[in-house]
Amino acid sequence: MDKSNTAAATQKIEFRRVTVPAEMDALCELDRKIFHDFPADLFIPEEWAEFESYWMIVDGRVVGCSAFIRDSDFDDEPRPGCLHIMSTGVLPEFRRRGFGMKQKRWQIEFAKQQDFQVIVTNTRESNVAMRELNLKLGFVIREVAPHFYYEPDEPAIVMELQL
Ligand SMILES: CC(C)(COP(=O)(O)OP(=O)(O)OC[C@H]1O[C@@H](n2cnc3c(N)ncnc32)[C@H](O)[C@@H]1OP(=O)(O)O)[C@@H](O)C(=O)NCCC(=O)NCCS
């Protein structure tokens, strides 16, 4: 059975820009829940303030969040035309229901509509869920960046999608 189609028939999915600083506490709380396995990966408010973030809202409930930096490479070097996805996340209780796929499809549509030529994103080497999801959507592995993450030390898999 195609679970995404049956779910989509009854669900209203919205992506709404996070208002900072008004919603900063809620953003950090969501980040803690989504990345609870890797506390070292949590962003601090000063970092969130630099991002363009969007709630993923399903039937009125926040289920996840996306965050971007425009015209930036994965290592924060300026890169015109590149949308750097800083965060893709779905709350643990909503995972494996197709919301991650829908969030990523929305990110790609967003990047196209904003005239970006490429999307870059990076994830822990051990993050099979994110890697698989990106590969399914056509992202390719550009490079492996050693020691990118800490606690635990781990390489980043850098993935790109040409638009
Ligand atoms: C990665 C993440 C967003 C996926 O969200 P999700 O809603 O569970 O994903 P979906 O249900 O849409 O899954 C889509 C596909 O991704 C892959 N996938 C998702 N979770 C997976 C897992 N645990 N193991 C292997 N593949 C997985 C599968 O190919 C899946 O398709 P399938 O369900 O038909 O097998 C979610 O696991 C998450 O928020 N993780 C924590 C945050 C994070 O690590 N973000 C990435 C770094 S920025």
Would you give an account of this structure?
The structure is a single chain. The protein is an alpha+beta fold and 163 residues long. Helices cover 28% and strands 39% of the residues. The chain has five helices and seven strands; from the N terminus they run H-E-H-H-E-E-E-H-E-H-E-E. The chain has a seven-stranded mixed β-sheet, sandwiched between helices. The two termini are 30 Å apart. The model has no long low-confidence stretch (mean pLDDT 95). The chain binds coenzyme A. The site of coenzyme A (COA) has 21 residues, from strand 4, helix 4 and helix 5.
Strand content: 35-45%
User: Please, what is the CATH homologous superfamily?
Assistant: Gcn5-related N-acetyltransferase (GNAT)
Percent helix: 25-40%
Q: Look at the structure and give the mean pLDDT.
A: 95
Please give the alpha-carbon distance between the first and last residues. Answer: 30 Å
- What's the helix-strand series? HEHHEEEHEHEE
Contiguous uncertain segments of 5+ residues: none
Query: What is the CATH first-level class name?
Result: Alpha Beta
How many domains make up the 3D coordinates? 1
Count of runs of 4 or more consecutive helical residues: 5
Coarse structural class: alpha+beta
CATH architecture: 3-Layer(aba) Sandwich
How large, in whole angstroms, is the Cα Rg? 15 Å
Q: How does the overall form come out from the CA principal axes?
A: globular
Q: Which ligands appear in the coordinates?
A: coenzyme A
Number of strands: 7
**Strand line-up across the major sheet:** 1-2-3-4-5-7-6
